[in-house]
Amino acid sequence: MELNINQFCNVAVTPDDGQRVFNSISPAIQSGQPVVLNFAGVTVFAASFFNRAIGQLLRDHTRAELKKLLVVKNLTADGANVVRQAIDNAEKYYGSEEYRNKQRAVVESIAEGE
Q: Phi first, then psi: what are they for 13, rounded to 5°?
């Protein structure tokens, strides 16, 4: 399966666009089908997009599994750096319940104005 990201967005920045990409690729990844994300024509990137599009995959898959199933092409060097950071962060988040609990506590304290 190959997905052209420019069919979803011209800039890969919003969590909503990232979620749409995730929703499109997750069933294929879950079934073990390789997925190619083609970023041709997309030149602006943000972690919020990649956290949703790719980071969530680490909830159910290891980095090694994703290396076999997910190919990203036509991504700028800056975009590749953002993807790596999103994967690193997601691996920490989904790999440790203690880390998730600490993250939730921080978010809750900010929301409560502490």
A: -130, -30
